[in-house]
Amino acid sequence: MYSVHTENGLIPNYDRNSFKIFLEGSRALLEAGRQCGYLTEVLTAPPSESMPSHECRLAALCDMAKQLPLTDESLMAPVQMLNRDGLDPSLDLFSYITENPFDCTYEVTLMKEKYLLPPRSRFLLSDITRMHPLVNSGDKFDLIVLDPPWENKSVKRSNRYSSLPSSQLKQLPVPALAAPECLVVTWVTNRAKHLRFIKEELYPYWAVEVLAEWLWVKVTQTGEFVFPLDSPHKKPYEVLVLGRHRSGTDRALPEQRLLISVPSVLHSQKPSLSAVLKPYISPEPKCLELFARSLQRDWTSWGNEVIKFQHSSYFTRERAEEPSMTSETVIIQ
């Protein structure tokens, strides 16, 4: 490994080839983004509305639910379905996978709060000690994406969410949930010890072969890195570690790839990987996100704040202008 000098100073933790790929790839993608209008030359004014101040109590509710006795697993179906009238308020959100089986988004009231559930989405609201409904469902997933709440000083100071020691990630039942040749993708911060833990301990423990490391590069609306490359603390990129469970496939997977986007204003919200990973998984795959805080169409999601960003306060409602269309369309704020 080398430290590469640029006009802006020292860029650590890159060999010369990787650094060249990073800069040249970023430059090409940013130019393409400007040409298609995704990026602008002038920073647009931020929305006049402030971000929702909804206080999320989901994690606290999950902690309380741990005090309840476990349901007899031999007598329960692991999935409860949304019906046309919404959800029965007496349903147990902590012991069952909840599914919206319909081809439209449903607004439902859960625990006296309104949430929007995307079409054909499923979720389990629980902490790491109560994941048995996922295992008991019998589903085997072709893609598992994890966004662990890594321990770091910034999160500890902000108190935005609870972090999890790396060692506890081994409790996740990934081998029981993974289909043959399942693609496992983990978001990781730029701390070297977290990256080493995934590659040297976590993935081998799950029988996942490490195949690639991709970078998500975060830029502003004008195409500037959100942090300087030579910043000693925060970096303008995050790493994705990709591997396959019990790999034996010859399906090619690029060892290096750059993904560039403007990050969400919602803290720690990652871009969807569905389209990017589609060429590397089976057709009509079953997809699972662990440590999710929002839902995706056709995905199963798990976490102790799994529907946090599905709260209605994060959305605005617009009525279609065409006279022939009378339905309402919900768009993200």
From TrEMBL:
<protein>
    <submittedName>
        <fullName>Methyltransferase 4, N6-adenosine</fullName>
    </submittedName>
</protein>
<dbReference type="GO" id="GO:0005634">
    <property type="term" value="C:nucleus"/>
</dbReference>
<dbReference type="GO" id="GO:0003676">
    <property type="term" value="F:nucleic acid binding"/>
</dbReference>
<dbReference type="GO" id="GO:0009007">
    <property type="term" value="F:site-specific DNA-methyltransferase (adenine-specific) activity"/>
</dbReference>
<dbReference type="GO" id="GO:0005829">
    <property type="term" value="C:cytosol"/>
</dbReference>
<dbReference type="InterPro" id="IPR002052">
    <property type="entry name" value="DNA_methylase_N6_adenine_CS"/>
</dbReference>
<dbReference type="GO" id="GO:0032259">
    <property type="term" value="P:methylation"/>
</dbReference>
<dbReference type="InterPro" id="IPR007757">
    <property type="entry name" value="MT-A70-like"/>
</dbReference>
<dbReference type="GO" id="GO:0008173">
    <property type="term" value="F:RNA methyltransferase activity"/>
</dbReference>
<comment type="similarity">
    <text>Belongs to the MT-A70-like family.</text>
</comment>
<dbReference type="Pfam" id="PF05063">
    <property type="entry name" value="MT-A70"/>
</dbReference>
